[in-house]
Amino acid sequence: QANEAKVLEMSVDALIVRAKAIRKALEDFLFKLTNEHQTLTWPTVLDNFALLSGQISSLLAAMKSEKMPALRNYPIVPVRLSPDPDPHLLALTEGRVSLMSHTETPNYLRTKPDPAVEQAERQLISEVGLHTENVSNAQSQVAMFNKQCNKVLEKVKTARANWRADTVTSRSNPPTFNPKATEELVAAAYFGRGLKPPQSLASQPQINTSTVTSFAVRGTMPVSGRLNTGVRMPVTKRT
């Protein structure tokens, strides 16, 4: 029994520390909203919300932990109710609760929402239920859209697989040219590498003189002569 009480006390102390951290973060955020609203930026607001969300999630995780005793088995029952302020209670709650009267105690120890709040919640739930058909239509449209997206994704994956297969096949094909021969052709075209030099004029054979034979026009005798220049001589017509 003593060990269980000690575990309960340590668990409650840990929850109190986490709750104080959340309260401090809320106070700082409210102070910024009140006094620094002109210079407050949206990223700063988001950072504060993220901090509060993380602290609340940590508190809930600690309450649901296996090491945490079942707090629902330890109800809080007021020992004495009085309409007069209680200094000890005021100091214990750091100025938040000044008395435990018959009017305030049900609100402090309430485990369910106020009846008016419950009625408003039921009304909202009933109004949401009227739009169930629209919700089902939206869900069907979302399912159809997801189906189309999956089809497009499958096509993209198939095209990518085919492209990779074609790339591998093209890389495995044997080359259709000889790199060495290509280099030799380029070197021969640009630098004349491997070409034979032209023969000199002295080594070329001399051109022999040609015999030019000219025939007279209209039945004249042919006149033949040997020329040294190799040029055809003009022919004169006899009258």
TrEMBL record:
Q: Which residues cross the membrane?
A: none
Task: Note the superkingdom of the native organism.
Answer: Eukaryota
Entry's localization field: Nucleus
Q: Does the keyword Magnesium apply?
A: no
GO terms in the biological process aspect are:
regulation of transcription by RNA polymerase II
InterPro entries, alphabetized: Mediatior_Med8_fun/met (IPR019364)
* Gene Ontology terms: cellular component: core mediator complex; mediator complex
Q: Which GO terms describe its molecular function?
A: RNA polymerase II cis-regulatory region sequence-specific DNA binding; transcription coregulator activity
Alphabetically sorted, this entry's keywords are: Activator, Nucleus, Transcription, Transcription regulation
Q: What does this protein do?
A: Component of the Mediator complex, a coactivator involved in the regulated transcription of nearly all RNA polymerase II-dependent genes. Mediator functions as a bridge to convey information from gene-specific regulatory proteins to the basal RNA polymerase II transcription machinery. Mediator is recruited to promoters by direct interactions with regulatory proteins and serves as a scaffold for the assembly of a functional preinitiation complex with RNA polymerase II and the general transcription factors.
Oligomeric form and interacting partners? Component of the Mediator complex.
Protein family (similarity comment): Belongs to the Mediator complex subunit 8 family.
The protein here is known as: Mediator of RNA polymerase II transcription subunit 8
Q: From what organism does this protein derive?
A: Ciona intestinalis (Transparent sea squirt)
